[in-house]
Amino acid sequence: MSNIGPFIVGELARIVLEFSQNNIPVEVNNPRVQQIFGPDGEEISGYPKSMTEIKSAVYYVEDTFETAGNYTAIIQAEYNLNAIEKIAEFIVNTRFSIGYPRIEVACDE
């Protein structure tokens, strides 16, 4: 299982994944994000979606997510005529939940 992110609600998220066998990177055929499940367990629409190769054995897909929480992606490909599957988990946060500065107002009583 791979952990990716965190990402920010409403901003473009790039999910990057390296395929390997015995810790050696391998190029695969037809890499795709087959499904993504959101924080409520519901399947996110728009999938399956093909992944783009960045460099040998490393692929990505981009999307935006509108709800904060934990997501699970099912990623599939073919290697040596066999189907392979990976599960990746990632977090989508609101801007303020990851330490961005915020404005606080002090009131005198």
Provide a descriptive summary of the structure in words.
- The relative contact order is 0.31.
- The protein has strands at about 1-10, 10-20, 20, 25, 30-35, 50, 50-55, 60-65, 70-80, 80-95.
- The protein has a five-stranded mixed β-sheet with strand order 1-10-9-5-6, with no helix packed on it. Strands 2-8-7 form a three-stranded antiparallel β-sheet, with no helix packed on it. It has a two-stranded antiparallel sheet with strand order 3-4.
- The radius of gyration is 17 Å and the shape is elongated.
- A hairpin with a 2-residue loop joins strand 3 (about 20) and strand 4 (about 25).
- The model has no long low-confidence stretch (mean pLDDT about 85).
- The protein contains no helices and ten strands.
- The chain is mainly beta.
- It has a single domain (about 1-100), classed as Sandwich (Immunoglobulin-like), CATH 2.60.40.
- The termini are far apart.
Concise synopsis of the structure shown:
By secondary structure, the protein is mainly β.
> Quick check: average pLDDT?
87
Strand order of the largest sheet: 1-10-9-5-6
Quantity of strands, as a count: 10
**For the record, what CATH class applies?**
Mainly Beta
**From the coordinates shown, what is the CATH architecture?**
Sandwich
What's the domain count? 1
Helix and strand content put the structural class at mainly beta
Order of helices and strands: EEEEEEEEEE
Major β-sheet annotation? 5 strands, mixed
Distance between the termini: 52 Å
**How much β-strand is present in the residues?**
over 45%
Q: What would you report as the Rg, rounded to the nearest angstrom?
A: 17 Å
List the total number of helices.
0
Bulk shape = elongated
What is the CATH homologous superfamily assignment?
A: Immunoglobulins
What kind of oligomer do you see? single chain
Low-confidence stretches: none
Helix content: under 10%
CATH T-level fold name? Immunoglobulin-like
